[in-house]
Structures are given as structure tokens and as C-alpha cells.
């Protein structure tokens, strides 16, 4: 039953997003301050119990995949964001938001999608960590290049600390528990994927609910732009990885890492550094749900192959 429900991941995520738009108050209890960060940490703990420290040794022994993912993250998505915003002639506030999303590091939800897709979770965690650390320099420089405005690195520093708390520490703790109590962990393992699905759906619904009015006013043009950005990221992340000769499992991981961004960080940067354009955060809110929906569909497809 748990496996069957897990395979319905896309329906859970899409359903949560639609319900949040129709009835935002339904997600009022699940907000960023009290629920989202702990939920992500618990989810990553569940990912960690499927890993061992030997997995980390294996990934670190082949740093080429991590470097390739890092390079794709900070070239494909920023360039895609700029190109899409120009080709679709987006208004300035939406261009700002889309370019900020494209300049952000990989999102923590990518680790969950990687797990559900049966790709390389350890590589995904390593890549998310690397891109988050790199964001302290890369994100301000990319926003300067794309928008002509230097976004200070203070908030990317904050994002780095949060990412360590939400991603690296829970995953390492999970791996330690798997090493110390393998039998007990094996009994819990079937529930970890299902709990990840439920929590990601709740997070997606919460983000959409908090921005429901602005999203409804944004119109189909912005929805299409965000869709093209993330769909292009997933496709190019996979295609370019294969061209580089990266193995299938790692190529799938790269696809997910490139296609999914830290949209919450993007919303924060847009709100703080572009106060004259309050709707600049709207593309980030749409992005948070869009990449989860597309990622969940991709995970459901790859999970059976």
C-alpha cells in the first residue's frame, strides 16, 4: 500500500497546489516559520536512513559528477531564465523574479525527488551542498550579470546555514542510524518514501497558499515561463550529462538537481532586494510548486525504469 501511494506522488503534489489556490486557508497551519523547515529536516532524515557512509565515500571518490552538476546548475538555469524572460517579453518584475530563481542553488526537495526516482541520493545531497555553498559567490555575481544589480551575499550565507541544518546534518544522522541500528531502520524504510511524498505535497501547498492571490493574478504567460524554465532545466540537465558521458543514474540525478531550484531563497532575495517590485517574488512562488510537480512526474516515470 505504501508503495502504491508513493507512486501517486504527482497527484498528491498537483492536488495540494490546486487546493491551495482554491482554499488557501486550508494550509494556514503549515507555514514556513513553524512547519516547513522541520518537515524538510524530517524528510531528509528519512532519506539518510537509506544510505551508508560507504555511499558518501563512493561519491567523493568521483568528484567529476559533482563538478559537472555544479557547472550545469550555474550555467543552464541562469541562461535559460534570461532567455525565457526575453523571448516571452515578461514584464520587468517577473523578469527579475525568474532570473533570481535561475541564479539560485539547487533546492532541498531535489534530494527527495531523487530518492523517489531511485537515482543517486548521495550524489544529490553532495551536489545540493556544493551548489548551496557556491551560492554565496555565484548567486550575487549572476544577478549582477543578468539584471545589472548585485544582490548581496548575506542572505545566501543564511541559506547555506539552513541548508546544512536541513540537508547535511539530517542525512548524516540517518546514515549513522542505519549503521548503528540496521534492522530497526530496515523496518521503517518503506514508510520513508511515503512520508516524503506527503510532506513535499504539504510544502508545495503551503507555498502556493501564501501567494495564492498573486499567482491567480499573474496569468498564463508567467506560468508558461516558469514551466519552460524548469522543463528545460530537467531536459538539458539530463541531455548534457549524457553528452559528457556521465552514467545513467548520475545523469538522472543531475537532471533533477539542475531542474529544481531553491525557490524559497529566491523569494526572499526578490522581496528584500527589489522592494520597488513586490510581485518579483511571484515567479519564485510558482517555481516552488512547478518544479515539485514536474519533478514528481519525472520521479514517477523513472521509478519504474
TrEMBL record:
Listed InterPro entries: BilAc:Na_symport/Acr3 (IPR002657), Bilac:Na_transpt (IPR004710), Na+/solute_symporter_sf (IPR038770)
Q: Where in the cell is it found?
A: Membrane
> Transmembrane ranges?
7-29, 35-53, 65-84, 90-109, 121-142, 162-181, 188-209, 221-244, 256-274, 280-302
Which family is this protein grouped under?
Answer: Belongs to the bile acid:sodium symporter (BASS) (TC 2.A.28) family.
Protein name per the record: Bile acid:sodium symporter
Q: How does it sit in the membrane?
A: Multi-pass membrane protein
Native organism is: Chlorella variabilis (Green alga)
Recorded GO CC terms? chloroplast envelope; membrane
- Which Pfam families did the record assign? SBF
Q: Which UniProt keywords apply?
A: Membrane, Transmembrane, Transmembrane helix
